[in-house]
Amino acid sequence: MGISTLQSYQSARIFEAIGLSQEVIDKYFTGTQSAAGGIGMREIQEDVTWRHDQAFDPLGLGTDTTLDSVGFHGLRSGRDKEDHLYNPETIIALRQAVRNNDYNRFKEYTAMVDDSGRPHTLRGLMDLVPAGDPVPLEEVEPVESIVKRFKTGAMSFGTPARAARIRSDSGQAATAPSNRWHRDVLA
Fold first, then answer.
1. Which of 102-111, 126-135, 168-177 has the highest mean predicted lDDT (pLDDT)?
2. Domain limits at 117?
3. Mean pLDDT throughout 108-113?
């Protein structure tokens, strides 16, 4: 969305909740969509308590409160270690594909990150089944008419090129670069 005004976000409902139970959503994020479901208040409370207890000595027993590394930020190999979507193998494959403009290597990369045998994303847990024959391209609504329905306003602090201003939804397309207020304010 770029840089947007606060008003653009308030009640915009431009996101979906993932990982929260319907009970939590109904109470704290009323009206938010969620198809995946997830944890409730009990699990959230348990997680917060566990993290707090790892950082502080709740009973004043003088125990070692050094935070343990549970493997979230460092790659550790082996069957008993946490599996990561982005690991040296996937990163090397992507870098090689991009650097060498190698589409076959890119397909190898996508096969690794989309591996349904080792799902890391919601997409990895889904089996996509075509609903029927594809819609003929001439029946698809043109992008120009779809964009007209976008209602998310934005505010930009300047764009480097005229082409970028024309494509922006910040209102700068109609404003000459010399008339933009931010040049004086930000200088």
1. 102-111
2. 83-127
3. 92
Angle at 72 between CA 66 and CA 75, to 5 degrees: 110
For all residues of the chain together, what is the average pLDDT? 76
Can you give the pLDDT at residue 115?
Answer: 83
| Contact between 59 and 44 (Cβ < 8 Å) | no
| DSSP string for residues in the chain | --S--HHHHTTT--SB--EE-HHHHHHHSTT-B-SS-EE-HHHHHHHHHHHHHHHS-TT------PPP--SSSS---STTSPP-SS-HHHHHHHHHHHHTT-HHHHHHHHHHHT-TTS--STGGG------SSPPPGGGSPPHHHHHTT-------S--SSHHHHHH-SSSGGGS-GGG-THHHHH-
Q: Is residue 5 part of a domain?
A: no
Q: Tell me how many domains the chain contains.
A: 3
Q: Is pTM, for the whole model, over 0.85? A: no
* pLDDT (0 to 100) of residue 84: 82
Q: What is the C-alpha end-to-end distance of the chain, expressed in Å?
A: 25
